[in-house]
């Protein structure tokens, strides 16, 4: 999504500028633009970098957040709130996957991990055994893959049947 791309880009920029800790709340002493030769403003650099990278609408919506950490957390909260429609479509993608031999199995597994991570961010935990069944069910219905599925469900102990166990 655009937000995920923005988040990665802004975190990389904050890291390059050595102020990522301000946004994450791990640094308590702000590095201000006073430390940049030729400037006189006292607005923390990290805060300014974030403000410069968001839309005017988001800037207005987040103007009350005066610390970099609060601003960054507010932006994360705005974009990562759970939404019933989004949650439904992510669950739909998770439960209706079908791996075709047109792509690598690793890409298919990555997709399932990504969908699960999206749900976790939206505060929906997915049982690891359920994910194992989703992965097994998404495999092609060929003799080769049917034998693989059968061997997994007949040899792995019930308590050890997890997504990771099936993946490996």
UniProtKB/TrEMBL annotation:
<protein>
    <submittedName>
        <fullName>Uncharacterized protein</fullName>
    </submittedName>
</protein>
<dbReference type="Pfam" id="PF14223">
    <property type="entry name" value="Retrotran_gag_2"/>
</dbReference>
């Amino acid at each position: 999504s655009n937000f995920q791309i923005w988040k990665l880009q802004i975190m990389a920029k904050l890291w390059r500028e050595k102020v990522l800790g301000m946004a994450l709340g791990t640094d308590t002493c702000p590095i201000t633009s006073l430390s940049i030769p030729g400037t006189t403003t006292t607005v923390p650099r990290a805060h300014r970098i974030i403000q410069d990278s968001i839309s005017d609408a988001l800037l207005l919506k987040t103007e009350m957040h005066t610390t970099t950490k609060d601003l960054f957390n507010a932006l994360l909260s705005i974009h990562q709130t759970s939404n019933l429609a989004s949650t439904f479509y992510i669950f739909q993608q998770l439960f209706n996957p079908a791996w075709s031999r047109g792509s690598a199995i690793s890409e298919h597994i990555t997709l399932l991990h990504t969908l699960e991570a999206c749900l976790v961010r939206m505060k929906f935990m997915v049982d690891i055994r359920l994910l194992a069944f989703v992965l097994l069910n998404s495999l092609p219905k060929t003799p080769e893959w049917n034998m693989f599925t059968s061997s997994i469900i007949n040899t792995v102990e019930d308590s050890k049947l997890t997504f990771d166990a099936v993946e490996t």
